Fold:
Amino acid sequence: MLAKRPPMGFNTWNTFGGDINEEIIFKTADKMVELGLRDAGYEYLVIDDCWSEMERDPATDRLVPDHIKFPHGMKYVADYVHSKGLKFGMYSDAGVYTCAMYPASFDREYLDAKTFAEWGADYLKYDYGNKPDDIRGDVLYRRMALALRQSGRDIVFSACQWGCDEPHQWIRSAGADLYRSTGDILDSFESMKKIALSQIDKLCCAGPGLWNDTDMLTVGMHGNGNVGRGGCTDMEYRTEFALWCMIQSPLMIGADLRKLDETSLALLKNPHLIRINQDEDGRPPYVLHGAVDEENFTLCKLLTDNEIAILMVNLTERTIKMRFLMEDMGIPVHTRLGLAMTDAYTGENLGVKREIFFKDIAPHDSACYLCRIK
Structure:
């Protein structure tokens, strides 16, 4: 099992789009180490679309790195990433062309998997653009999954299938390690909100060996970069990160690490939230309470060592006094037990709360707690 926990790392698309080159990759790898992100668990550095020449090598039929963007080739880039104690990720597509119209892996899955393995890839993001209409997605993803297993190298398989064709019903059996169940994220609160709400009925579809990928994080982008759309406030980024951690999405940073502000960096390295995301048991959360409407809800997640994570989320435009009953968690009143609560954002010990818990949650804000029954 290559993905016992949700993968963590960095992906180039959100900030750089097609404007990538080996210098950017090297500087990003350096920053992942310098900023302590590698030590916090972010280990994959993934190059997204637009890395190759527009045509395959006519002599070998292999994909060829853009000779201007990557003059030393991908093995050279992978070796540098590995020298930093990181893992190297590549991108391709199940179609004839990628989303940006570069050559993709349709009908050349085994050749491309072997090529990626020879370059030293540890991770493959596999998109879903420009595929033949008469071939099902499950067949195409099964092809690449088998090709990667035959490549001679362990390569995490990230199926970027956008939620098309109900992948939660078949993607585990196809051989993926994580799969996208949403469209692409943009750096705006509305985009994050739409993606988050789309996952409420899919919370049970993730676990060790197969994770539900809600796309790269926009934390710290502040409207800049390839998917910048006005950006979010620090509070909104905190809500995004807590949600991604709670629903066990892979944590792939999308912000430019060379320009990352201290608030965003501290959030991305928050040990309490990362622990929730990386919990060994990998149990999905459940919706504990949603008394006002579907845009405010409380998630509860059972962790190892008898710990419980609770996330209260208000995605509305008004402050809401949210609450949850401990009876609904399985703690009857007559037991006289309660929850010893620690604020996962600040680390503050809130003491033991019993029977019911109230919290005023501002618009777009959230509250997250690590709890033990006392």
Q: What stands out?
A: The mean pLDDT is 96. The longest helix spans residues 22-34. The CA atoms of residues 321 and 360 lie 4 Å apart. The chain has two domains: 8-277, 286-373.
